[in-house]
Amino acid sequence: MRPIDQQVILVTGSTDGLGRTLARELAARGATVLLHGRDTVRGEATMLDIRGTTGNDRVSFHLADLSSLAQARGLAEQVLAEHERLDVLVNNAGIGTGGRAVAERELSEDGHELRFAVMYLAPFLLTRLLEPVLVRSAPARIVNVASAGQSAIDFDDVMLERGYSGVQAYCQSKTALVMLTFDLADEFRDRGVTVNCLHPGTYMPTKMVLEAGVSPVDSLESGVEATMRLVADPALDGVTGEYFDRMREGRAHSQAYDTKARRRLRELSLELVSLPTARRQ
Asked: How much is the pTM?
């Protein structure tokens, strides 16, 4: 990889929590950082704060609500139009299980189960659309922020229309993200783009954890350190297709290693996001 002060890095979900702290650290190291969030006021405030605290003016904000596939497309189009290169894509944006506040199934703008839409379909689409600039910028990296909270996808009820559970919705979306990681690693293996994912930490004190009424276990700083390692550590040059539990290689849900399940998920995903049939090959 190039020196970090020569890199362009997009971090989704970077106006709060892990994403914001990671973005600040990247900016402090001199990277060109593309912030993302779904609120203009918060996003611009985050941009100004990071510029001010790091002295790095190469920090910009990009607006998109990733519960909308159209807005995910718009984010990709904006990045492609404004940047000739993209060295690292960090798919970090997410929402929690809903905790005590949400007991009912929620839908995205496109009618998909909300957590599956935000934490899997959006990064699936965004990564696919940014593929040309990532390959052109090689060596490049994709880092998917997953979770140790994983559960099998029921392909007969992916959108959880029967017996909805916020925990199941969250956990299956994270399994799907790990499956995407392994698929992309195989696809990009000889194209100079590595793809890895991680569980950054257990119940870090982020907004989604606190709103769920859960007591934090790991620190935010340790989660940022683990994620930064996948983004920038030269020792991981060429390492791809791995799931990390914090700082160590880990073992994901068994379904993530099932090539037939991954193919089934890929075909479903291409259909749901309406990508050209050529991408089915």
From this structure: 0.94
